[in-house]
Amino acid sequence: MRLDSVRELKQQLLADVVAPITAVASGLRARAATVAAMDATALAGMRFAVGAKARDTVPDLQRSVALGVARHTAGYRLAIRVQRQALLASPLVERLVRQAKGEADVRLIGRIDKRARRRTPAASAVPWYRANTRPLLIGSSIGHVDVTAGTLGAFIKRGSRILMLSNNHVLANEDEAKIGDVVLQRAQYDGGRAPRDRVGTLAASVRLKTRGANFVDAALASIDAGLEHDPALLRSLVNGRDRKLAGPGRDFLDEGVTVYKTGRTTGATKGRVTAFDVDNVVVNYDMGNLRFDAQVEIEGTGNAPFSDGGDSGALIVDDDMLAVALLFAGGETGGSNGLGLTYANPIHRVLADTKATLLW
């Protein structure tokens, strides 16, 4: 299919098939006409398991199916990303494949989590990205004083101010933080303590929405007076060698593009884009399940995942060292190597929503 044809089909299926079914599964009130128009087999095939718990703790938004765009021979096809094992062979997925006339890339991706959680590292010397870095560097451990750990993504300019970029859930604690709250580098989970490791304060954030679609998970922090920073150095990024950030990349990020990142948990990793324009990606946050649209999907290459908990906020660059996306979530299911998939916000949307320009 042509790219515009896949995008049109994706939007139609999201509105006509995915949205009504997930609304019913979530227990939301749906229009009688919409429900009546749905296939009885599709409704019967929905199985959204919910454990016994207080009703007000069940998330309104349920994980179901995300839709995006993937490469196919000389053109493109519909990327169908299934977030529940039980839905993989369901009438819902069968209908989506049928509507795409078989031109579909179906993958099980399981549950997607924000990436601020930390895996316990093996006992070894502390790598540079989990230690204090002075000057401040892209890829190093950072976080709000009450957050475990995330990653310093980049340095940006907003008006006359130079600020640090990372995720909302890293710097703004999922909208729980206040402007002026302390930001640590290294982060608290890596031994950072206030005031000793204070490097700045929360300056701004893009609020996370529990209703409707989110497009970015982003926040900005000021840099305390007297602290130096290097806006270009990408330390040990490619085959152990330093590289330099070359600026923002193009708006369009195609499947198959090779990408790199440095994060506070997995360090420098290499991957490739497996889908783009992915909508209805449901991500698990402390505040509940949140929907993200227009996201980039990435898998790791070789025998390692592209990211893990704690890599949230990492800047993703292409072969030309151009910034293409901001990492925010991932899971442990899917990918060619079976080690999970990573999800990221396109960098141009991040810069637009934070009203900032990238420094390099």
Tell me the span between the first and last alpha carbons: 38 Å
**Average pLDDT taken over every residue:** 90
Strand content: 35-45%
**Total helix count?**
6
Q: Which word captures the global form?
A: globular
Characterize the main sheet: 8 strands, antiparallel
Derived from helix and strand composition plus strand pairing, the structural class reads alpha+beta
Strand order in the sheet with the most strands:
7-6-10-11-13-9-8-25
Radius of gyration: 20 Å
Number of strands: 25
Parts with pLDDT < 50 across at least 5 consecutive residues: 28-37, 40-47
Question: Roughly how much helix do the residues carry, as a percent range?
Answer: 10-25%
What's the quick description here?
With 360 residues, the chain is of the alpha+beta class.
Structural commentary:
It contains 6 helices and 25 strands. The chain has helices at 3-25, 32-37, 40-44, 91-99, 168-171, 347-353, and strands at residues 65-72, 75-82, 104-108, 112-114, 136-137, 141-144, 150-151, 154-158, 161-166, 182-184, 198-205, 213-214, 219-222, 229-230, 233-238, 241-244, 258-263, 267-279, 281-285, 288-292, 295-300, 315-318, 323-330, 341-346, 357-358. The strands form 4 sheets. Strands 7-6-10-11-13-9-8-25 form an 8-stranded antiparallel β-sheet. A 6-stranded antiparallel barrel has the order 17-18-21-24-23-22. The protein starts with a helix and ends with a strand. 48% of the residues are buried. Residues 28-37 and 40-47 have low confidence and may be disordered.
Question: Topology of this structure?
Answer:
Elements: H1 3-25, H2 32-37, H3 40-44, E1 65-72, E2 75-82, H4 91-99, E3 104-108, E4 112-114, E5 136-137, E6 141-144, E7 150-151, E8 154-158, E9 161-166, H5 168-171, E10 182-184, E11 198-205, E12 213-214, E13 219-222, E14 229-230, E15 233-238, E16 241-244, E17 258-263, E18 267-279, E19 281-285, E20 288-292, E21 295-300, E22 315-318, E23 323-330, E24 341-346, H6 347-353, E25 357-358
Parallel strand pairs: 2-3, 4-19, 5-14, 12-20
Antiparallel strand pairs: 1-2, 1-18, 4-23, 6-7, 6-10, 8-9, 8-25, 9-13, 10-11, 11-13, 15-16, 17-18, 17-22, 18-21, 19-20, 21-24, 22-23, 23-24
